[in-house]
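#random but structural
TW: two for the price of one
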Amino acid sequence: MQKYNVSKSSYFYAIGLSYKKADADIRGHFSLSEEGKLALLNQAKENNIESLVVTSTCNRTEIYGFAQHPFQLIKLLCDNTRGTVEEFQEVAYIYKNKEAISHMFRVGSGLDSQILGDFEIISQLKISAKLSRKHGLLNPFSERLINAVIQASKRIKNETEISSGATSVSFASVQYIFNEVEDITNKNILLFGTGKIGRNTCENLVKHTKNEHITLINRTKTKAEQIAGKFNLLVKDYSNLQEEITDSDILIVATGAQRPTIDKHIIQSNKPLLILDLSIPKNVDENVLELEGVKLVHLDHLSQITDRTLEARKQHIPSAEAIIEEVKEEFNGWLETRKFAPTIKALKHKLNDFATAELDTQRKKISDFNESQAEIISNNIIQKITNHFAHHLKDDDVSTDESLELIKKVFQLEPSTKNV
């Protein structure tokens, strides 16, 4: 990346782990809370990392950033989570430069999602970029790349049917409940936690089950009340959690806590209870399975549910990939211009020096010298010359490196050490 003059560091990396190789437990070890993200960004600044974007969802935790070596980014991740370097090495991926750029495009465009065409990750990338910008950790390269990925994602959503039909983890949850539970309309359902997946699941439950026995509990009651008001649902205090679980037939947990919030000791009922854990890290301790009548299903299992809708989406992968290549080509074109920008800038300075010297000479020779007119003419000529060189350097049929060296030699330009 250094040849593109986009960073003081040598390489752009994407490091992380996802559902593809890391199970829910391992992903939980590397999950970052909001406080964890802030701590990581602050540590990155202290370590003189120039640009860094970090995302952490139920399916993946990733860092995109500039570094001399990927271990600088891996250390940031391990220092701010419960994950270890050894665990990371077993399940993680490291992409560099062009591969890292391609990876971000695939992730942001829903092609790398656990459920194909799920575009939730793009909103996460936007939020992460905004947070990095706020902390002074988003350089022009990263900002331009994020915007290009957003553009590709938007086009894929609008120009293909890769996200057609209701297929997401939250919808899969409702599908599973329909398949496993009889007389769903009359069952007592408790939603504990109001994170994004929890809210979407709640909306799908209301829409598809016509159930009027759905109760919401959240540690912060006002958040639960905001969602409940939208769907006309019942809200109970966090202190009522145990008794509400006792009355429930279905418990959906989406709290986003870093440790289990539900275990066997809080369940006092002997009747059948289906528990869906939609959280990373896992929020339900597996010791609940020691209780008779309890069935526990985790997010990863729900994500494996496929139907005709999901199969139909696969037909649109080639169209999505073509859009990515098109947007990526535009981004690479911008990168190429960054490659020769310092030389063009130095050339313009050199031509300005020539013009200034010549204007001084003519000013002394000509008594009625029209300074403003001469400056306009010289500036226009300089602009035309630099534009001509810039167009030449953009030409695919010429060797950019050789042309740059020739320009520097002819005009005796100092090698630029400043990155643009």
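TW: number two ↓
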Amino acid sequence: MTAHSAVAAEHTPAPAPIAWDEARSRVHAAGLAAAPDAVELALPLTDGHTLAAPLTTRTALPAFPTSSVDGWAVRGAGPWRPVGRVLAGGTPAPLTEDGTAVEIATGAMVPDGAAAVLRVEESSRTPDGRISGTPRLQPEWRTPGEEAAAGEELLPAGTPVDPGVIGLAASCGHDLLRVRPAPRAALLVFGDELLTSGPPGAGRVRDALGPAVPAWLRRYGVRVDPQNVIGPVEDTLDAHVGALRRALAEVDLVCTTGGTMHGPVDHLHPALRQLDAEYVVNTVAVRPGFPMLLARVRGADGRPRFVAGLPGNPQSAIVALVSLVAPLVAGLQGRPEPTLPRVTLAEPVPGRGDYTHLALVRVDPRDGTARPLRHVGSAMLRGLARADGFAVIPPGTNGDAGSRVLLAPLPLAAGERP
């Protein structure tokens, strides 16, 4: 049985974990294949979506010569006789006679026949009312096509749409953009031992992932509606199957917390079997974060939905988000697989044998050095609250001080480009 085959009989042995980087590529490809159809939306509605087609200009930018200063558009040698005024939004008559000038505002169209624009603060009036001064050698206007030629591709498909992209599209003359909508997600919290309010005690622990995971997902550009954060789900197989089936009918991705092992109340794998799910990834050779999974379920409309099984320990769950959910979501958005930056280790970080080690670090923005944090046990969140991401220590290696390693960043801002 391979990681791509259908979930098999109940007592099938767990497969060998696959390499961390292979798992990321595999889930990204699955997301890309399942990316929803593109839609056309009005510009103000596209923030947080993804370009489904390249952004091109409808005209040259600028489309006409545009004055970059307030002053006088002049023809021939001075002094110049004023013959009119042109403001932004107007179409001026051409200057046809030498020795003439029109007053011009910043952003206004430069009239045909103008040889220069004289800044107003560098001009003066002669006694007979003509304009005198010396125009600068550098032209004081923007020429057509200076920013972009007509039809030029400015941004490729797969670019996240943010306010800068929206403004650029508007300047190009677009009223609509063809985009891929933001994926929708739900969170199912598993575990009868969890409290949803108040302090932990008497054998029960406070659920930290129910409030936190939706916030992380939103920072990846995923839509998570409050009604789709559900739990704790009762620790029975029927309750797990029912909750998964209801969520999968509404969203593109269901994240679950806990239940990824094969213990007496770990019902996720049996529930996936009942849903005829297919594993994309079933266990990854990474520490912390073991075990994690991603499965695919065919929806009633024929489109695949996904279940991301996150471990119940809080830091391990976030490792699973960074490892599997981030590249899956990029694929669903029609974006490239996230490229990981590199950082320099300021202190040594041990390896984890045959497993990739994701070590929580804080990155100094001044020099790009990464320092490992304390309080980084699988069940701990104190280190995570101060972290910028995870230093990636490959299998069979140690991270020596001064070595350059990949960084799996945490999504610290909404719409952040990995």
